[in-house]
Amino acid sequence: MGTTGGPAAMTVQVCLDACHAAAYPFGGLEYSQECYCGNTIPLQIATDGRCDMVCNGNPNNYCGGSDGLDVYQYGTPSSSSSSSASSTSSTPASPTVLASYNGWTSKGCYVDSVAARVLPVAMGTAGGPAAMTVQVCLDSCHAANYPFAGLEYSQECYCGNAIPPQVATDGRCDMVCNGNPNNYCGGSDGLNVYQYGATSSSSPTSSSSSSSASSTPTGPTILASYGNWQSQGCWSDNPAERSLSVTMPITTGLTPQKCMDACYAAGYSLAGVEYADECYCGNSVVNGGAQTTNDGCDMVCQADSAHYCGGPDRLNLYEYNGVVPPPPPPPGSVGPVTTGLPSPWHYAACYVDNQFGRILGYTVPASSTNSAQTCTAACQAANFTLAGTEYSQECYCGNALVNGATKATSDSECNM
């Protein structure tokens, strides 16, 4: 059972309140941070002292242990009734599959796979995974013009244009929604699937074919162009070695346009959107990034459900056709950092770089928060004695200047 504050704030009271709100008569706590609910008391009492772990949110109480539940029952059974009567007389209702909602109809539980999603579009929803409900997911898929929606693992929402191929018959859709424990939201590799629009009850044999062939709404697309920006398709990425080296924060909800605007303003000609809400910039694709098929870029944008914004380890890449001006210097005078550096670092001079190759051979990943202090710290941590900052967001290290390094004619040439 998902609880307020999550595992880190688990207490007996929080768990029991959550089970009671979901109309369960039994609640149990395990492993300091886990909460479980049910309609019957467990079968076997533990006598080996395994319930020995204190609650994450209150070290004054125990919250079970490894394979051990501290169990609680709501209400006191009547002294005149048997134990079997107390568990069957007025047991609260269990969670159910939401049958219908605003034109959507439940189609049952279907088999899914993390490696090959049967509903291909992972849909971000209001409130995020912690607030997932069937209604929130269906509304999101409907807003993006998808006729099929599915919920999985209590907190995930997927959309698509065709019903999944395989019905699950093993009861795997057994996890309640994080945002509403009265309804099921799929399970592990199990989707509770819904279809928008009612099929005719008089012709059940033709319902599936007619619903898929009639006027299936078109879903999100890859934004083809924006001003001088042009889509370059879907590209591979790696969290450990980014294909575009600069992470660009977008705090107001990601769209491809916002990412492109931010990269242009920072002086970059390439922009990439990933995992629905991430933006990256650069002037070249690095670290082995390569174009892939578009089916990997299947996540709609956080703030634009009409367009895709990459996927897991996949970038929707855009290139600016024209000259991107360098970013303007910040207000006030710009000069080298000569104070506040960690000892024994000190400012040397402004040098010309890349005339015959990089004059410092080690590259630190570019960062929008780059500074003289962070660059020297990174170089020192990598056991280098020289550090150089360039183009506002780049940092280089070495133990000697190479490739014909020469000083610039003036420190004013280092003006970003």
What this model shows, in words?
The chain has 416 residues and is of the alpha+beta class. The protein has four domains: 82 residues, no CATH class; 100 residues, no CATH class; 96 residues, no CATH class; 63 residues. The strands form eight sheets. Strands 14, 15, 16, 17, 18, 19 and 22 form a seven-stranded antiparallel β-sheet that branches. Strands 6-7-13-9-10-8 form a six-stranded antiparallel β-sheet, with helices on one face. A three-stranded antiparallel β-sheet has the order 2-1-5, covered by helices on one side. The longest helix has 10 residues. The radius of gyration is 29 Å and the shape is flat. About 8% of the residues have low confidence.
Main attributes of the structure:
single chain, 416 residues, alpha+beta, 4 domains, six-stranded antiparallel beta sheet, 13% helix
Strand content: 25-35%
Radius of gyration, in angstroms, nearest whole number: 29 Å
Please indicate the count of domains: 4
Task: State the total count of DSSP E strands.
Answer: 27
